[in-house]
Structures are given as structure tokens and as C-alpha cells.
Amino acid sequence: MTPNAWFQCFRGCEGRYPLTQIIYECPSCGGLLEVRHDTDALKTRLGKEWRGLFDERFMRTDWPYGSAVWGKKELVCPVIEDDNVVSMWEGGSNLFWAERLGREIGCEDLWIKQCGNSHTGSFKDLGMTVLVSMVNQMLHEGQTVPAVACASTGDTSAALAAYAAAAGIQSVVFLPKDKVSTAQLVQPVSNGALVMSLETDFDGCMRLVREICQKENIYLANSMNSLRVEGQKTVAIELVQQDDWNVPDWVVIPGGNLGNSSALGKGFLEMKELGIIDKLPRIAVAQAANANPLHTSYLNNFDTFEPVQAKTTLASAIQIGDPVSREKSIATLKQFGGVVEQVTEQELSEACAQADRTGLFCCPHTGVAFGGLLKLLERGEVKPLDKVVVISTAHGLKFTDFKVRYHQNELSEFGVEPTRPNLPVELPAEYNVVRDALFRKLDSAA
Ligand SMILES: *Cc1c(COP(=O)(O)O)cnc(C)c1O
Ligand SMILES: [Zn+2]
Known about the structure:
- This protein is an alpha/beta fold.
- It is built from 17 helices and 13 strands.
- The chain has a domain of 214 residues: Rossmann fold (3-Layer(aba) Sandwich).
- It has a six-stranded mixed beta sheet with strand order 4-5-13-10-11-12, with helices on both faces.
- Helix 11 crosses helix 13.
- The site of pyridoxal-5'-phosphate has 18 residues, from helix 11.
């Protein structure tokens, strides 16, 4: 059985376009496209049969179904031939009970989905495997695609560069000159991406990459490409699967361009339609207060949406004032009893530090999610006995600069006053001095 799938306007215009066509927007209305699946064909399997099939494949060796994304291939991108899949066994990241943190914050059934424990260190791998596999298939079918390009300072370019390199496809990354740290550059540079450093800002890079892709047939890997959503939606399937197909009460997720929150919702809705689950969770999107257009819209019942000029935030991957996927995300929130919270730089930094003290190593975006959850608990929106899954979006090791500066109290430009700094104790190498200092510290910590 190879069920069909195609691009169609998210707003519901009629045209259908093959997934191998280079097209990102609806030709009639300019809205975003989404991938639609032949639900009737998919329904020939019962919900429990899908669950059994996915469990059989999960994290095994059968190509490409042992990848947790491709293990759901029929629901993700059935038209790609197995031989054309570009996979590095993405997905299958740990979902675990954060017992100590949950107890501290009054949320005993708190679970964390560690999407950053992944090939390039962020959830962007889940979508990029699908996008690059599609380019690989197009090349094998004889289409000419000179390169795949994106504008991004961080996780998207890292994922694109890695998957393109695995397939021997040239990637191109557009970055604003002098505005990107070595840490952000080193992954695409190492993977052989052509890095174009432009004398402009991020939005300038975005405009240019869109124009070049449109005119020169280069494939665009930014998130208006809805193939990425299909890979990213597997996080919903996976977190339910990892809990014996039980649906949590809440999923909390940080939001910037809002592709990932839409993907999460799409995953749950499609599972419900196919009878894989029988209820939906509620979804909470957390934004940085410095880049909060969705939060403002939420306060206004989503009746209006005003893009903002995003201010600098430590949560750099969500420093976006004019999110591409806002319509999709708002539609998701309306179907999931959704709420939106916003979190200051102080709150996100402290949320990271508190979580780290319980054994985590949170990226600032995950700090935004935790900070949002704290506020929802305080407001009584999330109840103490609710089962909550927090989506951790990247690995903390990508953001060591943020952590070092927190502990050294060097984040005052962000208004951060650390309450949990933990600095090394510098001492001469003398037994008595070391012993005294050691026990003084242990006593004061007790
Ligand atoms: C991309 C990204 C996000 C935001 O996802 P959107 O789809 O843009 O809302 C959050 N955290 C990390 C670490 C990311 O890389
Ligand atoms: Zn349309």
C-alpha cells in the first residue's frame, strides 16, 4: 500500500500539487501549503494496527523504518522511495519523568521530551530528513536542483548542512555578517555548507534566499516548506507511543516561527482521525516576551495579529517578530484549547538554572517552555495532577556561552540577575585549606 500525499493550500483552496514540485505558496491566495494525506486509504488500517506497526519498527534496524520519523513513513511522506531516504536514525529521543523538578514546581506528573538529544542537537533534524530525502528523490528522478539553501543563524542551518552532506547534496547557508557566533557557524562549516556571509540582517538574508530560490531553481529549506512539518509532527506520535499510547493532558512547547507548534497539532489531529488515539491534549505555546506577537494575539482572542520588531533574546532561535506559520499555529491552538504564555529573560534564565539543578542541561528555548509552565501552574491553568510533557527543543551544549555568562553574572544587558550562580572555588593546593573550604561549602549547602 502506498497511500498518496500532495501539497494543498492550508486555507482550503482546491489545487493539488505533487510533493516533487518546487512550490511553497498557494498560487491562488498566497497562503502556505500543507501536506495532505489520502485519509481514506490510511483508514484501511485500524488504529490498533497502526500502533502495532509503529511499535514493531521503533528504533530497530530495518531501513529506513528504524528511524523514528521513517517508522511512520505512511503518515509522513509515503511517496519517497526507501532507497532515496536520507536518514541518520533521527527521532527516538528520550521521554522521561522529571521527578525532582516536577516535585519542586508542584507538577508531579512532569515529563520531558528531549528532542535536542539528536543528530545535530535540535528537533530540526526531524523535519530536515524529510526535506532532504525529497530533494534526493527529485534528483534521482532527473530534476535539476543545483543546491538546497536556507537563511538561519542556528539549528536549521546545522540540520540542513548535515543531511545534505550525508546525501552528497550541496547546501548553502545565508547568514548576516558579524552577527553570528563561532558556535553557530561551526556545524554548517564542518559539514561543508557554502556559507554566504551577507552585509545585512537576518530579514535581509531571508529576502535574498527566497528570491534566489525562486529565480534560480535552488530548493528552499526554510519553514515555509511544509515538508519539514511532516517530519516534525512525528514528535506528537512518538511522545504518545513512548507512553504506551497514552495522551498527556498538556504539551508545552516554545514558539518562534510557529512551525513546530503547528506540526505538533497536526500529528495529534491525524492520529485521532486514524483512531490511533481517542482524545487530544491541550497545547501551551511559550514565547520570549522580547518576541511575543502570538502572545499578544492570544490576549486578543486571536482576533488580530500584529507582527512586532523582535528584541534581542537569549532564546535566539525564537527571536522572530513576524512568524511564517502563524495562521497554522493559531488554527492549532483553537482546536486544542490552546494557551500562550510569555517569559522574560530573567524568567527563562532562572527556569534553565532551576531545571539544570535537577540534572537537566536546558537550552534557553526549553527555559522558555519551563518558565511558561511555571506561570500556567501559578495561574491554575495547568493543575498539579495534570500529566504534562515539555518539549525540549535543543541540546544545552549548543548554548554553553549563555550558561557560562549566567553563572558569571554577565547577562545584565538582558536584565538577568542570577539567583543560582555556581562558580568554581579557587584555592591553593594545600590540604587544610581545601578541606576547610570544602566543608564550609558543604555545610552552607546543607
Ligand atoms: C527552531 C527552534 C525553535 C522554534 O520553532 P518554531 O517552529 O520556529 O516555532 C525553538 N527552539 C529551538 C531550539 C529551535 O531550533
Ligand atoms: Zn490558497
